[in-house]
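INTERNAL AUDIT FORM
Audit reference: QA-55
Scope: verify that the stored structure record matches its stored sequence.
Auditor: D.O.
Record contents follow.
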Amino acid sequence: MANLTNATSGDAEFKAKVKFDPEEDCCSSTSRLGFDPQTIPPPLGSLTIEECPKKKVLLLKTILERDLVAADIKWSLFVAASHSYRYDSCLRPYPPMYVRNECKDIEALREAIQTIPPLSIIIRQLDEPDVYENNSAAVNLLYWVLVRLRDPQIKSVNKECYDSVLKRVPSEMAVAPPNLIFQVASTKQSLFEERWRTASQGHTTLYAYHGSRLENFHSIIHHGLQQNMCKRSLYGTGIYFSSELGVSLPYSPVGYGWGGSMHGSQLSCIALCELINHPDVKRGDSGTRKDEGWLPGSEGTSCSLLFLAMWFCWHLSD
């Protein structure tokens, strides 16, 4: 069986093939440190949402036009979390405009989601002069998910780079390739990046896959992998990874995302992660699967999410 893959293997070919341009390409081997924070819309400073509707509409339209496919997926993952009966743990962060008297008004949020048409229609509606006055609730919610939650950013990876991304963790098992791959990119100044640089100093790193239910990925993107999201304990408590895509995929069953998505409502998602190679990472031995490893502890602070691989329902059944 294959082992969890060292991050240095295969990167030479990857670097030679791909030159990173933050406006055009999302598959640099230095995906984390090579991310340009200027590709993220600037913060609004002290202005509140109510004080700058025109700027909100402009920034939302910019995000949608720049990468509609990625925006669609990000919104779909948010919707999947909002419809889960475990929304208290899945829907983190939670939109503050749907908190009433310090309680989450999940029904009002779900009703608001139902009013939002496909994002391709939203782009056209944002050109209308009275769009905010007529659709303020929808614009506010989309703005919060797609613009306010802008770090980390989800960016589409060019299809010609898919093989290079998947070669980071070469698999021996035959599985259907993903329909889409997205880069998860944080700015150098983010708190997570500071923690990662401190924790990884002096260590090599590994690449591995992690499977989870669709509704968990909104929280995973913004808070990292959490032990309370993991139901497995076959080899002990921890967050589980595999060097085999086919091993992780069953732990990412098809889930219901958003009915208005251009990709359909039924999706499956796998995380490709980078792990710090130190004794906390337990690997398969003679009594366990050689292609599996796990990270003990309540939080995956020694793990960085780099890519999301997505499958659509009809593709998985081929």
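Auditor finding: record pair retrieved intact. The CA atoms of residues 58 and 203 lie 43 Å apart.
Action required: none
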